[in-house]
Amino acid sequence: MSARPLYVKVFDLYLNSSIHVGIATSALVQMTYYFAAIPSDLTVLLFIFSGTVFSYNVIKYAPYISKKGLPTLSLKIISILTVFAALSASYTFVFLNTAAKTGIAVIGLLCLFYLIPIAKNKSNLRNLAGIKIYIVSFCWAAVTLIIPLLNADIAISNDIFYKFLQRFILTLILILIFEINDLKYDDIRLRTVPQTIGVPKTKSLIYFLLLAFYGLEFLKIGYYEYQWFINLILISITGVFTFFANAQQSKYYTLFWVESLPIVWYLLVLLLGNK
């Protein structure tokens, strides 16, 4: 078997080190600043990007490294990047206001329970059947929407509540597509949605959630020209990804393409959005 080209190894490292998911999270933060009509806060952006990279890598690799150490060069590089991400997140955290720090502490506790056993049978929230997708969706919505607004001293209004629901639903949709793609890997005891109701019904659920995501836009008081069209493009693209999702797709289908949807949403706003 021939060795993989260098560019493939670099691209895999980019994905496996959670840098791509960090950029996707940052794109949603930028969406928050756009909708709130306030300047981007680089401190918040750097904190959320670094915190995402750190938390995702710890959740993914800490159990493996604790058992087997660092057997590969890529894991060593990821570990170094994770340490730098932790230092960056710690440094920028100091400059956030009290409200944002409090919100982050609550989300941090959820992440901690997600990783550390909380019961005698050594279960954690990640392993409790059915709860994982809601924890991750809540954390993404809270981190990318609520934390930037808290740090900017902006009150939580009805519009923000609807935006929170949109972020929650969008993240839930992305996770469901991931679960369809990961059917061949997931332990049956996880009882993921595709394992429980099957792939066709999971896709039907995603289509319903896409309609709910789109409908929430029309409940907002604030008006953003072309946002109805931008969101229509987004749910159309997501619907196509859902249609072609299956357990035989490569890892790049979700780890890169599906994970890129928040970035696509922000790029659409930059290209077409006009308040």
TrEMBL record:
Q: Which spans are transmembrane here? A: 12-36, 42-61, 73-96, 102-119, 131-152, 164-183, 204-222, 228-245, 252-272
Q: Which UniProt keywords apply?
A: Membrane, Transmembrane, Transmembrane helix
Q: Keyword Membrane: yes or no? A: yes
Q: Does the keyword Transcription apply?
A: no
Name of the protein in question: Prenyltransferase
Source species of the chain: Paenimyroides ceti
Show the taxonomic lineage.
Answer: Bacteria, Pseudomonadati, Bacteroidota, Flavobacteriia, Flavobacteriales
